[in-house]
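Researcher: Next entry: alcohol dehydrogenase (Nocardia veterana).
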Amino acid sequence: MQALQYVTVGAEPEVREIPTPEPGPGQVLLQVTAAGVCHSDDFVMSMPAEAFGFTLPLTLGHEGAGTVAAVGEGVRGLELGTSVVVYGPWGCGNCWFCAQGMENYCARAAELGIFPPGLGAPGAIAEYLIVDSPRHLVPIGGLDPVATVPLTDAGLTPYHAIKRSLGKLRPGSWAVVIGSGGLGHVAIQLLRHLSSARVIALDVSDDKLQFAKSVGAHEAVLSDAQAADNVRKITGAAGASLVLDFVGYQPTVDTAMAVAGVDSDVTIVGLGDGKSAARVGFGISPYEAAVTSPYWGTRAELIELIDLAHEGVLDIAVERFTLDEGPEAYRRLAAGTLRGRAVIVP
Ligand code: NAD
Ligand code: ZN
Ligand code: ZN
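Model: Predicted structure:
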């Protein structure tokens, strides 16, 4: 089969012919119908050889959708041909976190050598994908896999980040979304559907600001050195009740802290360069502002999000690419010229 693989540290990913895998005991083989391209892959591929933690070649893609093509020994209750999406942050299934559906925070994954597809295990940007357990599949019925696959990360990550702060998003409050790309454009829609907060979106170009408004942002502000002042002009002294930073470089983290209000949540989702930090302390940050950096979301949350998609309230912007065009999708992601999510359709 064909797969998009990261082969050489520092080089572009390559389309390569590799053996089609067979499902082992307990595993499921999916024929991939769609696979999303996430900015975290760009972060991983920008790591120097000494910091790169996975074995190469690595088939990319941690957002996957497919139809069940075969099941391994012992797998029950899953019909061939079922259309599914993949819950990506695989855990052991047995620890306290996994028992809560929080496999994204599995206490034993590292020790057991369990990695998400595309981030250690072979990923979804291929004709076929091995999923380690039927537990990691969510049926999507008649939903379009191409428009639905971004929900497994570009949807699930903001859904988790927003859900934990819903109590703070009262009528009249402001939510700020920094970075209106793959994750950010879903975050804006989720904020609009799940809360009555008003939404201010930030990005670096007029095109992106228009895009943010088209998916539901009430206000859009250029993300420059004056961004915090311009956001404060909109929110007034109260500031924002929730700030979601989908960029995570020091300038955006500083903007996030500068627009946060008393008793707010500042949620840093973007990886940035992996070095930025928020300063918290008396007289430095707003009273009772809480700063967190969450990772992905829970299994239950992905099921909820697919249920929300069935309501038809989400409009996921997708740019389609073939497997052969995979390297081009990553070039466009790095250049910041995508509108929404790049999805590869093998
Ligand atoms: P993306 O490239 O689709 O979107 C990023 C957006 O940010 C683009 O619209 C870009 O124009 C905008 N942007 C860039 N610099 C900016 C700035 N200084 N101010 C405002 N906007 C700016 O990326 P994505 O796939 O949506 O991922 C977003 C971030 O979230 C990445 O850092 C990614 O690694 C990270 N991520 C984290 C998790 C997690 O679990 N914490 C999960 C998925 C992705
Ligand atoms: Zn991702
Ligand atoms: Zn676990």
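Model: Note for the record: Residues 32 and 66 are 4 Å apart (CA to CA).
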